[in-house]
Amino acid sequence: MSIAHILKSDGVDKDYYLMIVDSTGLIHFANSYLITNLGLSHYEIPRYNFFQLLESDQLKEFQVTLSGVQASNCPAEIELSAKNGSFHWIKWEISKFIAHSPSDEKFFCIGYDIVGKRKVKKMQQVAKRNYEAIMEGLSVGVIMQDRNGEVLAANKRAAQRG
Question: N or C: which end of the chain has fewer CB within 10 A?
Fold first, then answer.
């Protein structure tokens, strides 16, 4: 995917993640789509580390990709899932960002959701309906609690016996 492809106006709104990140994962720039969808704060962008948003098994793969782009000066693509309370599979194209000095090396990252938001939302709705049908279909009362004993959920049978 090229920058021209992203900026091409074809009458259809497209949402893309854009960020500039250094080799340590520090985010130097992020567009509002990335900030909103990954639950970040506009005001704290210089403090966020993209590495912390990745699943641990994918962190190494992303670091290897950055090293490859750095060594070859050629763009690379990678698919990653971001962790932020939601599940985002994002396909990234990573290019070397023109730096003033080798110590100032950064990477320009363009990404887009692999699974569309609508599909994810539909899957979440189906899962919720299935969960509710199973919980309410049980002939016994069920109470779900967190580690501290606080009630998170209960079905109708549990409420009737309470």
Answer: C
Closest CA to 80 of 13, 21, 128, 121: 21
pTM: 0.62
Beta bridge partners of 96: 107
DSSP string of the chain, one letter each residue: --HHHHH---SS----EEEEEETT-BEEEE-HHHHHHTT--GGGGGG-BGGGGB-HHHHHHHHHHHHHHHHH---EEEEEEEESSSEEEEEEEEEEEP-SSGGG-EEEEEEEESS-HHHHHHHHHHHHHHHHHHHHH-SS--EEE-TT--EEEE-HHHHHH-
- Main-chain dihedrals φ then ψ at residue 89, nearest 5 degrees: -90, 120
pLDDT exceeds cutoff 50 at 7: no
Chain centroid offset of residue 34 CA:
8
